[in-house]
């Protein structure tokens, strides 16, 4: 039987063509934490311990998938997001760190406020509304999504953490069901914003495995979701309600202009930790 240290090196070597270092090392760490149910420190302290045959076989099956460049989050079936360990599969986009920054912005700007009504549009795995609900327990939080498959994942995540988010299956380009006009304090959205022409710049495993419905917009109409969600926000937000977008950095000024022309106040482009314009916020 292999030791933990030997198995870690075996994973790194086996997936190196699909995921060069240092990514291979990070993935090996995640795989072992998941299969052995040990954290980073425990793995280091127990590096000479032998791995059970069933656990080694589970790792070998994961290696086969990783060698096909399948994202490790899909292989493990989980992704970490703002303190939650969410279920994910190829029906949903893998939550990104910049979306955690969007959640953090909302929580900081509404710290201490009770009884807020919040809608997340294009909810996917439910990462945004679930993180908000977990940190704003008195809020009424909705998650809207067109894909039934994605909503199945979101519901499973809500059940895992016993979070009372209300899920709405609807196309955002149709009327939003079940929410009264002028009733929301916050609308937040990370809609599709990657241009079709940007596919050639993306990693092959993203294109091959992640749902294109959640990623791409036509080259000729990159702001189609932002225009529609802006109209929805004008209808559903209360006076002084807040709108939060994650954006394609190429279109930060266009989104700002769109909101200003729609009559929103306090329109602000917010940079992420890497200094990229990735969020826009505005007040009704």
TrEMBL record:
The keyword Methyltransferase applies. This is Release factor glutamine methyltransferase. Pfam families: MTS, PrmC_N. It is an enzyme of class 2 (transferase). Residues 7-77 form the Release factor glutamine methyltransferase N-terminal domain. One of its GO terms (molecular function) is peptide chain release factor N(5)-glutamine methyltransferase activity. Substrate binds at residues 190-193. Residues 109-198 form the Methyltransferase small domain. Methylates the class 1 translation termination release factors RF1/PrfA and RF2/PrfB on the glutamine residue of the universally conserved GGQ motif. SUPFAM superfamilies: S-adenosyl-L-methionine-dependent methyltransferases. Belongs to the protein N5-glutamine methyltransferase family. PrmC subfamily. S-adenosyl-L-methionine binds at residues 145, 190. It comes from Pontibacter akesuensis. One of its GO terms (biological process) is methylation.
């Amino acid at each position: 039987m292999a030791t933990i240290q030997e198995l870690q090196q075996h994973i790194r070597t086996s997936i190196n063509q699909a995921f060069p270092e240092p990514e291979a090392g990070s993935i090996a760490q995640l795989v072992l934490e998941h299969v052995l149910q040990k954290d980073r420190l425990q793995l280091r302290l127990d590096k000479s311990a032998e791995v059970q045959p069933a656990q080694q076989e589970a790792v070998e099956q994961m290696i086969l998938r990783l060698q096909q460049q399948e994202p490790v989050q899909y292989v493990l079936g989980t992704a970490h997001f703002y303190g939650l360990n969410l279920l994910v599969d190829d029906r949903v986009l893998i939550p990104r760190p910049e979306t955690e920054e969007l959640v953090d912005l909302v929580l900081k700007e509404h710290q201490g406020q009770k009884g807020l009504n919040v809608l997340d549009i294009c909810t996917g795995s439910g990462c945004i509304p679930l993180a908000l609900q977990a940190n704003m327990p008195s809020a009424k939080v909705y998650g809207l999504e067109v894909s039934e498959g994605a909503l199945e994942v979101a519901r499973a995540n809500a059940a895992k953490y016993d979070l009372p988010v209300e899920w709405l299956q609807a196309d955002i380009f149709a009327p939003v069901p079940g929410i009264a006009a002028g009733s929301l304090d916050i609308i937040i959205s990370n809609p599709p914003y990657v241009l079709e022409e940007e596919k050639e710049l993306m990693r092959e495993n993203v294109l091959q495995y992640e749902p294109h419905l959640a990623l791409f917009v036509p080259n000729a109409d990159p702001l189609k979701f932002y225009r529609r969600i802006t109209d929805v926000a004008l209808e559903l937000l209360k006076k002084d309600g807040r709108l939060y977008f994650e954006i394609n950095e190429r279109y930060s000024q266009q989104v700002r202009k769109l909101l200003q022309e729609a009559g929103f106040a306090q329109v602000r482009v917010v940079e992420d930790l890497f200094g990229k314009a990735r969020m826009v916020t505005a007040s009704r």
